[in-house]
Specification:
The chain is of the alpha+beta class. The chain contains 7 helices and 27 strands. About 2% of the residues have low confidence. Bound molecules: calcium ion.
């Protein structure tokens, strides 16, 4: 009898203890969550959290949880020339633990995002709920298709995502070896590659679609690898020169039989490709203007010499246009030893004029460089005047000087077949802007800022 009473007493006691513990755990969790939210608003979470705690939070937000939330962090009105724009930022600095770059895609009213480590997220309206924008993680096998050591070492191997004709394409700098495990210190084979998946809401199962056949020995950000939807059943891909001029004294961009330093069009059904243009260095932005059949592209020069280029396909489609790198550029090679410098300049002389040597002149170049990224032609964000085409583009950089870390607008006047820059205005955003999309029915630009891990929305303020 007594035993029974004691047992019941112990059970009740244990029950109460577990309720208290559960309650405490819940309290701790909520406290952590609230603190996290508060810290996010000040963008200094990393400084205030212990390593252990941070690791847990990181895991919770980036690896396990299906929701990636961006919290309202600022809202300001700035002048873009004579117009006013509203810039609203939503931040989650932990997103950089999934690779410090992300690209955006707009498809069927939804915004897609791929991080440098290959996590894919989707948001359906960009309408903030309780001052936060939630992205849902999409299941995919992307990480399984690349070497784990390689992915964890560089963290920014995935470059871009597009959705077209019920297919999802993802581009990356890939690595391969027949024999040895990944070791960044030894001879390596890096190459641009594209994976494809059937578009579905819940799960993207990727497979190989395209691979550049050449092996590039250096892992570099000068790899381009940006995708764009082209006409019919084709997509466009930029392939950078993989630092072949500056670090190997090899002018691959001028070699028609080498894919480094090219823009190519790839048939979605067969995977076959054709060269569109050559003589590029590191094309981080590409936009296809369907109305005028023009490819706009941007590229990073070396020290100085960033460019905006126009390829008017309507004039001579099929001709492989040459944009000069590494024979002509308005920039200079980075500092090199005297001996190596001679070799680099012998193979990649960097003459200033392009047209004098039968290369296409950029419509605009930047000395010093602004670290130019995505470009979009959009005539209705701010209503255009007659004969004016307006392009918007963004920039990276480590300071705010000379147009770096800014949102730019250029008006182009079309005279017969020539485009002349009539106006250039920009707004400093104080962050490295990696990518940008435009949503027509909201008249809204959406940008990814990679230092603070932010989504920025830019609308016209009236
Ligand atoms: Ca050029």
């Amino acid at each position: 009898m007594l035993n029974k009473k004691a047992t019941i007493f112990i059970l009740i006691f244990l029950f109460i203890i577990s309720i208290i513990l559960l309650y405490k755990a819940k309290e701790r969790y909520e406290y952590k969550y609230e603190r996290l939210k508060g810290d996010y608003k000040n963008l200094n979470l990393a400084k205030e959290t212990s390593d252990k705690e941070f690791k847990k939070i990181k895991k919770f937000f980036i690896e396990e949880n299906k929701t990636l939330s961006f919290y309202s962090s600022s809202s300001e009105i700035k002048s873009l020339g004579s117009n006013k724009i509203l810039i609203e930022k939503f931040s989650n600095p932990l997103v950089i633990y999934s690779g410090q770059r992300s690209s955006l895609e707009y498809h069927d009213e939804e915004v897609y995002m791929i991080t440098g480590k290959g996590d894919i997220y989707v948001n359906s309206s960009l309408r903030p709920i309780n001052d936060q924008i939630n992205f849902l993680k999409i299941r995919s096998n992307l990480r399984e298709l690349v070497d784990q050591d390689y992915l964890n070492h560089y963290q920014t191997i995935f470059k871009d995502i597009i959705i077209k004709n019920s297919k999802v394409y993802v581009s990356l700098t890939n690595w391969k070896s027949d024999t040895s495990p990944f070791n960044p210190g030894v001879d390596n084979c890096y190459f641009t590659s594209i994976f494809v998946a059937n578009f579905s809401d819940k799960n993207f199962i990727f497979d190989k679609f395209f691979e550049m056949q050449e092996c590039m020995p250096i892992y570099t950000n000068s790899a381009g690898s940006i995708l764009e939807k082209f006409k019919g059943n084709e997509i466009l891909l930029t392939i950078g020169d993989y630092a072949s001029c500056g670090k190997l004294a090899r002018n691959n961009a001028q070699d028609k039989n080498h894919l480094a330093g090219k823009i190519i069009r790839i048939n979605e059904d067969t995977g076959d490709y054709k060269l569109v243009s050559m003589g590029h260095r590191n094309q981080q932005g590409i936009y296809y203007d369907r109305t005028n059949n023009i490819i706009f592209s941007t590229e990073h020069g070396p020290k100085g010499g960033d460019e905006i280029n126009i390829n008017q396909l309507s004039i001579d489609e099929g001709k492989i246009k040459d944009y000069g790198w590494g024979n002509s550029s308005y920039g200079e090679h980075y500092d090199l030893s005297e001996e190596f410098k001679k070799k680099v300049y012998a193979n990649c002389p960097l003459k200033k004029s392009h047209s004098e040597f039968n290369f296409q002149e950029p419509i605009k170049y930047f000395v010093p460089s602004i670290a130019i990224t995505q470009i979009i032609k959009e005539n209705s964000f701010i209503n255009n005047k007659d004969f004016i085409e307006t392009i918007y583009f963004t920039s990276l950089g480590y300071t705010n000087k000379d147009g770096r870390r800014s949102f730019h607008k250029i008006d182009l006047r079309k005279n017969n077949d020539f485009f002349e820059v009539v106006e250039h205005e920009y707004v400093v955003l104080n962050d490295r802007i990696r990518d940008m999309i435009y949503i027509k029915n909201k008249n809204l630009f959406v940008l990814f800022l990679e230092l603070s891990g932010s989504i920025a929305m830019i609308s016209l303020y009236k």
